[in-house]
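Shipment paperwork, digital attachment
Item: protein structure file
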Amino acid sequence: MSHRLALQRQGAGLKRSIATLSQDMTTGLVKDKSDRVKGDFATLATINNALHMATARKDTARSAGMVFAAQQAILDDLGAQAQSGFLEEFKRGAAPSQSALAWGTRLMEDGFRHAVAQLNTSLGGRALFAGTATDGAAVMAADDMLDAIFQDMMAAYPAGPDADTAHEFIAAWFAVGGPFDISGYLGGPQIPAKLDLGHGITVGFEMTAQDPAFRQVLGAFATGAILSKGVFAADQAAQQALLAHASHGLGAAHHSLIGLSARLGAAEARASAGLARAEAEHTAMSIARVEILAADPYETAMQLEQAMTQLDLIYNLTARLSRLSLANYLR
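Attachment content:
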């Protein structure tokens, strides 16, 4: 009985060794880290901490890059809208027909709605241009905003403005401190905190729908779109003048968008550099960790084969003792 118990204990130990060695063979890393580092975990802890930080920086840089890329795509789209070829005809002072004026008004109206929709874009549930208010729309709905502009303008000029006055009023509506800031913009202030990507690289989400370039885009489109409210319905010259103001405004807005795109491009470049450095650091730390914990495949295979051979021998001895015990009992 004592021999059998001894063999069972030895077999249990060998089973544990086989499980550990099998895991070492599969993962390529030793399971018993304490034995490998001789009880001194300081270096391994430093490497693991660096790996954790590099992973966090990679995720942060990658997320920031996705936000910047989405914003850049919207800037490119708004820039293309501002460069509409049809608007060039009004800027050259041509005398369009009533149908052309109606078409121009519809284009401006569609452009205004499109610009508002773009500024209200969200990515992964986060508003791109609403500053700290990331969980909602950045600006008022397009139709509601046009209604507000029209009502404010008619309240200021009950007898009706002329084309130049209407243009100036709408520009003032979108100016800093104007009604747009009070009711048109629904977001919060710029996000003040910077994201630390390590190695002295930081990025911030500073762009909001209150940026001067976006004010210009919205104001220019609104200048033409306001004609959809029946302003100057019987005055083709005033309609043409207002659309010409809108066209000139879009030209200026396009240049502003180029500058804004350049600023955003610099932030994209910093995020890309931060991601590259974090990935390089993660790779270096991963290699360092493997060098410490790597299991020698040849030695591990030899130890595994020896353990399995010993366990097989124990099974055979146990079986033989069991047969002897049965023979003694039958006697």
